[in-house]
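ingest -> validate -> predict -> emit
validate: passed (alphabet ok, no gaps, 298 aa)
predict: started
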Amino acid sequence: MKGFMRDGGVVRGTSIAGSSAVKRRPGVLDPGSTFLFLLVLGLLFLLPIAVLVLYAGARSWQFPQLLPRGFSLRAVEFVGRQYGAIAASLLSSVLYSLAVVALSFLLTVLPARALAWYPLPLKGVIEALFLSPALLPVMTFSMGAHVLLLRLRLSDTWVGVVAVLTVFAYPYMLRSLSAGYQRISPDYTVTARNLGAGFWTSLLRVEMPMLLPAFGAGASVVFLVAFSEYFLVFLVGGGAVASYTGYLVPFLKSSDLQIASLLTLLFLIVPLVLFFILERWMSAVFSKRGLNNGADKP
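emit:
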């Protein structure tokens, strides 16, 4: 199909079909490549889980066997017998991880706001100092923190574990909230203040709902860091603070892969359930307030 255009008095034929073709944006994958990428990503996630499931039920699985020779419920029976100890360690880990998330948010929300909205002097240096706990080697950080907590008499306590994990994990929350504030226009807060809202009212009722996606991202990372940390909890908690990693690691170092695999699957399920609850809660808040994924754009 031909169309015509005039250029300097000369009529030239052009292909309408060719001119109407949609050009793919640079960096955007075509549907086939996207499907292949998601398939590979899904296999990288699902294959290790499938191996854990097979190991959890395998009576014997040795090289070069492709599949286990037989299956048994010995690991399930062990979890049933040790249900109280496992539940107590899981509950303790979930509680101090949630406490770390809450404390990290309270400590970083105002610094993130200042870093995103205000032209601070030496802003890069200040942000680097705030993020430095995540860049230090864990051994160096933990030994220094342990000495300080010993002097404060917070070693071997639940409060000490929460404190050291918060200092170790808060940079992830700070970075996430700072990126979230960069997406929010300060004009919303200015408008609220001009209408008579105070600082805390505008912070809680205007900024916080739009900051929920950033909070969700930061909370997920902070929770995972705190929930999966073994060395810091063992060093600062001194065995007095129960943790699921402290219960799991001895089995991972043993030769009983059947029980270790089932306990690892339990370790995976807990964060997934909590992340699902967080996602549903944020979706409900967005729907109730008429927000578009918490963004500042309609």
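The chain is about 70% helix and 5% strand.
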